[in-house]
Amino acid sequence: MTLPPNVYDAEPIPEAAREKVEALLASGDLFRYTAPENAPVTLLESEFAEMMGVRYALAVSSCSAALFLSLKALALPRGARVMIPAFTFAAVPSSIVHADCDVVLCECGADYRIDLADFRAKLPGVQAVIISHMRGHTSDMDAIMAACDAAGVPVIEDAAHSLGTLWDGRKIGTIGQIGCFSFQSYKMVNSGEGGILITNDADAVARAIIMSGAYEHMWKKHKARHGENSRDLIDALERWQNKLPLYNLRLSNLSAEIARAQLPEVPRRIADGRRNHDLVASLIAASPWIDVPAKLAAEVRAPDSLQFNLVGVSDDETRAFQDAAAARGVKVQVFGLSSDNARAFWNWQFLGTLPDLPKTRAMLMRACDTRLPARLTPDQCALIADALIAAADDVMGEVKAYGT
């Protein structure tokens, strides 16, 4: 049996980063504010903002830090209610707790997206919304933004998994007031750890810059995309000087150089990731036990993983499918059945009493997840698809599959 490839290996860091990293190591100049101007972190922010078509970007230590700073930048009162989809990673509700706010969980459906009826019902009394485009699945942003705009509720986009995704031609992360991205190792851009927030709101980014750790007048080394001396940004930074706490969530120059070298690779990674996802999804759809939810019409995805639902099976059969896939060389996690999974909302016990969310729970008990990085070839993807189909057949069998 030919085994599928190891999907956990990262792409090599581009050679362009190696020379820059060696120079940094030789100089010891790793702190973002050491250089008088144009430090690697500042350049990363400018280049990322240019790529996304926004005025401001702030690179920080993680996407979680970006979400936390986004909430603080909105100046929400202590105890403000922040709604998130119940299908997300534990870091998202954790960022809300960190910001001294309260979490409101919204139902998600079998297609992994926000249940709009539940979202609209819970929106009154909410002071902010974080939309997690979980695993790159985009909810109906037109409906969400219309509801939030009508209610006067700001929207933060958790786009950790969605760099390169489009919604009706608009880049995910630019639709809400603030967008947050991840540079963690399994994301489109890999600096090991790191994150970045983007916005066109000068006051919000000024607050975030200072709170990220721009002490004294270090904020003078930050730039707007249009003009190094943007008066809007400078006025906002001067207004908030010494009025906000410093959380020290900065990114280092070393991480910035590693991330910068990968920005030119993003278009290729998007195209290859979409090719791989669509190929495997089309192949595994032949199994009567596997359903891959369709994308929404306005959505152009940039996936680096694959999610699908098992249908007509029990919990025991679902666990057996995981084991059968592993035996064939493909690791599959079922969000609701993987022990202590940080994407299963009932494991967020730090929130206290958790609501009953039957739609989300039912989805998580059958939703399967496997990595599908852009570096894979179509032949390697076909091996993964064959392994998944065979694993389903191993467990359910031909007799059961065809009812004979």
The number of strands is 14
Shape: globular
Main β-sheet: number of strands, strand sense, barrel status?
A: 7 strands, mixed
Question: Mind telling me the CATH class of the largest domain?
Answer: Alpha Beta
Poorly predicted ranges: none
Tell me the quaternary state.
single chain
Percentage of residues in strands: 5-15%
Describe this structure in words.
It is a single chain. By secondary structure, the chain is an alpha/beta fold. It is 39% helix and 14% strand. It has 13 helices and 14 strands. Strands 1-9-8-5-4-2-3 form a seven-stranded mixed beta sheet, sandwiched between helices. A four-stranded antiparallel beta sheet has the order 10-12-14-13. A hairpin with a 2-residue loop joins β6 (166-167) and β7 (170-171). The model has no long low-confidence stretch (mean pLDDT 94).
Short summary:
This protein has 404 residues and is an alpha/beta fold. The chain contains 13 helices and 14 strands. The strands form three sheets. Strands 1-9-8-5-4-2-3 form a seven-stranded mixed beta sheet, with helices on both faces. Strands 10-12-14-13 form a four-stranded antiparallel beta sheet. A three-stranded antiparallel beta sheet has the order 7-6-11, with no helix packed on it.
Blueprint (SSEs and pairs):
Blueprint: H1 15-27, H2 40-52, E1 56-60, H3 63-73, E2 81-85, H4 91-98, E3 102-106, H5 116-122, E4 128-132, H6 141-151, E5 155-158, E6 166-167, E7 170-171, E8 178-182, E9 195-199, H7 202-213, H8 231-240, H9 253-260, H10 266-284, E10 290-291, E11 299-300, E12 305-310, H11 315-327, E13 333-334, H12 358-364, E14 367-371, H13 378-402
Parallel strand pairs: 2-3, 2-4, 4-5, 5-8
Antiparallel strand pairs: 1-9, 6-7, 6-11, 8-9, 10-12, 12-14, 13-14
Helix pairs in contact: 1-9, 2-9, 3-4, 3-7, 7-8, 10-13, 11-13
